[in-house]
Every structure is written in C-alpha cells, then in structure tokens.
Design goal:
Length: 177
C-alpha cells in the first residue's frame, strides 16, 4: 500500500499540510490515482488511506454524500474488498445524509481494514452532534426515516459512541469467505 502525507483540499486547489512537500503537481497526480472518482471540492481532508485504516473529513454540504460513497468504494476496491463496496457505500450514504440533516460542521468517515483472517469490516461516521440517532417508524408515504432500519438489517451489528466533539455511529459488515 502507498503512504502519503496528510493534506487538505479546498475548492479546486490542493494545499499540503506539510510545507516541506510543496510539489502540488505530484500531489494532484497522487490524489487522482488514489480516488479517481472522488469529487474534489467536498473533501476537507484525507487523513490516511495506506495502512490498516482510511479516514476522510467531508464538508457539511449535500455533495458530501456522493463524495463519501465514492471514497468508500474506491478504498474498498484498493483493499480488494469489492464484495462489500456497494453495501458499505449505501450505509455510509445513509449515515452521512442523517448527519447532514442536523450538522453544520465537517463529517468524518473511517474504514478499519480487517486484520488477516478477520471476518468484519468496521465503518464509522462521525459528526459534531452529541445526540445519538433515533430510530423511528416510517409510514409508507414518508420519504425518510428508514436509514437506521436499513443499517440494523444490513450490518452484522451497529452502535454509537460519544466523542469529545460529537458522536460516532459505527457498523460492522461481514466479509465473505
């Protein structure tokens, strides 16, 4: 796996966090090779994608849902975990959408790569709100209210935990094999 410096993305330009590495052209090539389908303007920061975990921070705007889906699919493809890519992307988009309905600050997404011979992929979505999500019963005519039901039925298990700056909703997906 490739390792890369931490960086942030603002607008169409790229700004390295490490001023000792000002090679913007190389940086742009690396970012495009890492996630060619990832929309650039919605990503605030990519923390790591080369080791046992990958993490992104997305701005709190509607484009974050699409960006998060793309990031998750691309990373799982790099890890040869395509078999759970669509389901992970669907559940991440549900949780990011839930966070966007209430949050005005950036939203974090993190994937924890399973250790060799492990049976689950851990996925986390963090937002700045301390209140845990509430499951509700959606009526047939409702356009929303089914995300947590979907999460509960499609994941191996899920939960929430408080953090210093909000909460994290996590879920585990079983891996085939």
């Amino acid at each position: 796996m490739r390792r890369h410096p931490r960086y942030s993305v603002r607008g169409a330009g790229y700004t390295p966090i490490d001023p000792m590495k000002p090679d913007m052209e190389g940086f742009s090539r690396f970012f495009r090779s890492l996630s060619p389908s990832l929309p650039r303007r919605e990503v605030v920061r990519v923390t790591d994608t080369g080791g046992a975990w990958a993490a992104w921070t997305f701005s709190a705007d509607p484009g974050a849902v699409r960006a998060a889906r793309s990031a998750v699919r691309d990373q799982l493809r790099l890890w040869d975990l395509d078999s759970v890519g669509d389901l992970a992307a669907l559940l991440v988009s549900e949780l990011v959408t839930n966070a966007l309905q209430h949050a005005t600050a950036p939203i974090g997404v993190r994937l924890v790569r399973p250790a060799p011979h492990a049976e689950v992929l851990l996925v986390e979505v963090s937002d700045p709100l301390p209140q845990p999500p509430r499951a509700r019963t959606a009526r047939p005519e409702d356009e929303d209210g089914r995300g947590l039901q979907l999460l509960a039925s499609a994941s191996r298990r899920w939960g929430t935990r408080p953090g210093a700056g909000g909460k994290t909703v996590w879920f585990e997906l079983p891996l085939p094999g």
